[in-house]
Every structure is written in C-alpha cells, then in structure tokens.
Amino acid sequence: MKNLVYLLTIVVVALGIYAFGANRSNNQLEQALHTRYTNELTNASEKLSLLHKTISQSLLFEDEKALNNELDNIWRMSSDLRNTVSNLPLHEEVTTQWMRYLGKIGDSAKVAAASEDASVWRKQMDKVTPNLHSFTEEWTVATAKFYEQDGDYSKWSTNQTMELSESPFKTVSTQLKSYNETDFPLTASESDYEKKRDLKHLMDKQVTKQEAINKFQKFFPGISEAALTVTKSHDDASYPFYHIQFIRGARIGYADITENGGHLLSFLLERPIRKEAQSHEQIVQKAEQFMEQVGYKDVVISESRENHEAWHFVFTRVYGEDEALVYPDSIQVKLAKDNGEVLGVNAMEYIQKESIKDQPVTPVDWDKFFNENVVVEEVKTIYTDNKTLQLRRCYQVIAHVQNELHDTFRVVVDAETHEVIKTEQLP
What we know:
This protein has 427 residues and is an alpha+beta fold. 46% of the residues lie in helices and 24% in strands. Strand 7 and strand 8 form a beta hairpin.
C-alpha cells in the first residue's frame, strides 16, 4: 500500500511539473506571437505613412527622371506593404480589400512609369491622396484599439476568425471597400472575373440536401455507405453549397456540392496507400471514366504528373471545331496509384466557365517571329487570360533553342495582336 501511495505521489508531482512547464511554454509562445504581431502592425503603420508621403511627392514632378524615381519607390513600397499586410492577424475581408487597393496603387505606378503621359497618374492620385490620408488616420485608431487588447491571447489571436463586427478594423474595412470602388473602379473584364469567381452565372435549379447526398453517392459509389455529416454554407458566402463530411473505415474526407445545380466543386479523401501500383493507362482510363460519371464530358487531359502515391491530372475544357484548350476552365483530379480511386477533385475553375467571344485570328510566320536558332516543335490553339483578365484566343508554341543547353520554352502568343502573353521554360 505504501508503495502504491509513493508511486501515485511521484505521478502527481511529475504531472504538476509537466503542466507547469507546458503552461510556461504556452505563455512564452503567446508573448512571442503578440510581440511579432505588434511589431508587424507598427511596421505596417510606418510603411503606410511613407507610401502616402511618396505618392504626394510624385505629384510635384514634371521631370520624367524625377517622377519615375518616385513611381519606382511607390511600386516597391506598395509591394512591401502588401507582404506585411499578408502576415497580420486581420479578418479575411480586411486583408482582401487591403491587398487589392495596394495592388492597384502599385500597378498604376508601374503603368505610369512605362507611359510617356503621366496625366492619367496625376488625375488618379488626386483621388487617392486624400483618401489614403484619411485611411492612414483610421488605421492608426484601429491599431491603437488592437494594442489595447494587450497580451490577452483569447482576444487578439482570433482576429482572423472572429466576426468582422467585433474587429477593431471594421471601419478600416468599410473605408477600403469604398476606396477600391471609387479610386479604382472595376474594368469590364475584372467585373466579369468577379462574377465568375462568385458563380453568379449559375442559374440552375436548386437541389435539396438529400439531392446533394444522392449526387455524392452517385459520384463516389465506393464510399456511398459512409457515415455523412452535411452542413450548408454560411448566409454570407459568395455562393451557396453543401459541405458533406464522410468517414468509412480508414477513409475520411469531404465534398462540396453547389446548391444551384448540384455541381461537384471539390473533393478530398484521406486513406493509407498500398505499395502496389496500377499502370498509367489504367489510371488514365479511370480518371476519364470519373469525368464522364460526374458530367464533365467536354474535357481532355492537358497535364499530368505523379508522386510515389498518386497521379495528378489536369482536365481542360475544349472548344470549337479545332478543340482549342480553354485553360481557365480546368479541373484538377488526384487518383491513388494502388487502385485508381479518386482522392481529390477541384472543379471550381471549370464551373466558373468562361464566356468565349469571337476574335479575329492573324497567321504568324514563326520563322520571322523567332530567332533563327529557334526550332518550333508544336503549335496549338488555346484560350487563356491576358494581363487584364480578358480571355484571348492564342497560339501555344513549344520551341527549343539550338544551343549547348537545348532549352525548351512554352510561349503563348495572342492570335490577333501577336502580343506575347506568357513565356516559360520547360524542364
């Protein structure tokens, strides 16, 4: 009996020491994080003030060299501040609005530096400067409120997940949204992009919760008997969808299905992967069968890669008689190597579906377009977004340079204007 009491005493003391050490470690971690966020907020405030000052200075100069120096500083500062903002414990909506506004300022400075006429920049900054001054003051107030939370981890650590109405940055968010709309109104292509992103075009009949479950079981018959938990997206979500969580034996995961039309948005399955592997041809066949099964029939494989456990495929929508690849309308699919089971799906881009407009096509003499030591291996017709988010019909050219390295490149050229939209070196 004495031995038992002795052992219990040792256990209690050991647990007490461990709890004390763990609590001390947690407190140190909280203090370290609080210090980090405090420093980041201070840096953001300083950088914001400096950005406002530099924009005001840029309006002084007519001299091209002096102006371009300020424009270069503005572009660099806006990028630096974007990086700082991305590390702050802010509500997602605040961060999104902040990043967009800073991005627009930086892009405008970059365009102005490349232009011979700075009048557009000056006219735009006449709006931005007073707004940025007001925003700087409001940011200072919000930061002070944040500091008032002191070291209370339970308050400040939840800024990324708490309701925006509870955040000290609520007014900041309202200001940013207003300034984004007035200072940098959306272009037609950006507006179209946001509508696609928020699935505004989905006008299909709404499906019920049970109908969403039925579709899930049809799409994934191998886990149709799994235990399911179904929840609906929040009322303030960009688009309504059903979130289906499942578990069956070692299989666990989720699927998101849109309320409008019951389209499969995404899917993820986690389970152990066995060492044996099916052939690549067998996996491809199962991937194509799955596309048919879920109703995505106008797609072809445009990219594939593998790791030790799975094959990853990109299926891209084809359009027109020449079956041009519409790259923005793609689906990512992951299949297990051991039996070809679908482990992951991301169909958001495909469901967003681009609206393709007629566009003139001008032939290209590739011998004159490229250097004489460049060999064109393949030319395909594709559709992709340009820098202003406009969908353009393009030529996709695979070419290699006849040199010691034999570098191979993928070059995307606008089929009408012959502007080079993208160049990337291939492995």
